[in-house]
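During the reporting period the student researcher (J.K.) took over the structure-prediction task from the postdoctoral fellow and processed the backlog of single-chain submissions. One of the processed entries is reproduced below for the supervisory committee.
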Amino acid sequence: MIEKNKTEKISAEKLNIASQWKLMRWKFYRHKVAVFSLILLSFFYFVVIFGGFISPYNARQNDIRYKNAPPQRIRFFDEDGKFHFRPFVYGIEAEFNDKTFQTLYIRKTDVKHPVYLFVKGDPYQFWGLFTTDRHLFGTEERAMFLMGTDRMGRDLLSRIIYGGRLSLTIGLVGIACSFLLGITIGGISGYYGGRIDRFIQRTIETIRSIPTIPLWMVLSIALPPYWSVVKVYFGIVIILSLIGWTGLARVVRGKFMALRKEDFVMAAILNGASEKKIIFQQLLPSFSSHIIASLTLSVPGMILGETALSFLGLGLQAPAISWGVLLKDAQQIRVLANTPWILFPGLFVIITILAFNFVGDGIRDAADPYSAI
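J.K. obtained the following C-alpha cells:
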C-alpha cells in the first residue's frame, strides 16, 4: 500500500511539472491505433524515400513476356512439401486461349527462381547522387512480380513504391502552402476584425460554396499541356493549396477572436509588444497543438485531390507515376474483370487516408486539455 501511494504521488508530481508538449505526448501514446498509424506512415515514407533501392525493378522498365501477369507468392515450401531455406518463386509462362482470347499464365513447378538480398537489377539514380543497380531483394532473372504487372509488363509493386513519392509528398507540400495561407489570412481576419474580417469571411464562403471537384477540374485545365512533370506537380500543389486553406483560416480566426482579449495578450500590449510579436509569440503558441491536429487531418484531402485529378486525366499524366495515374488504368470494367490486381494502388490510398485520420484523431485527443491522461 505504501509503495502504491508513493507511485501515485510521483505520477501526480510528474503531471504537475510536465510541459504541455510532454502531456500531449503521454496522451498520444495511450491512443494505440494512432501510434500504430504513425508507425505505418513512417514506414511508408521510409519506403518511398529509398524507393529505388527497395523496389525490385525500375518502375518504367517493361517486359512484353509478362504483360498483365498475376501476383506471385514467395514460398519456402514447394509443391511436394519440401522446405527450402532460401525463399523462391515459381516461374510462369504465358499461354493464349483460343476460345476465350485471353492470355493465361501457367505456373511452372519445375522452374524455381531463388530470392536474394542485395541483388543486382535495373540501374537507378540514388537520390540523384550516383547510379547503382543494387536492390534490397529480387531474383537474378526478371521473374518475380509480387503484385503482378500492368498491360505493358511493368512491375506493379515497383510502380506503387515510385508512385508513393508523388502521392505522399503532395499532401505534405500542399499542407505547407495551406498552412502559410491559413495562418496569415485567418490571423489577420481574427486579430483585426471589422471590415477586413467581413471581406475575408465572404471570400472564404465564396470559395467553400463552389463544388470541389469541378473547381479542381477548371483550375487544372488552366495548366499548360506542354509543362514538364515537375511543373505540373507544383501546379497541382498550388491548386490544392488555394482551395484547402479556408478551413484552417476559419480555425485560426476563431481562436484569435477568443484569445485577443485574454489577460496575457492585454499584458503584452501594455508592455509595448509589437503586433508581430503578439501574434507569433503569444497567440499562435497558445493553440499550436490544435493547428497541428487540423493540418494532420487535412493531409488526406490533399492526397485524395491529387488522386482524383490524376484518375480523371486532369492531374499528373504519364510518364509521371502516382497512385492516381496508376488507378487510371482501372477505368475499364474489362480490365478490372481480367486483372483485378490493378486496383492495388487504391488499397494503398485507403490505408494512407485511414492512417492519417487516426493520427489526426490521436493528436486532437492529446491536445484536449480536459481529457484524462
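The committee noted the following: Residues 123 and 133 are 4 Å apart (CA to CA).
J.K. will present the remaining backlog at the next meeting.
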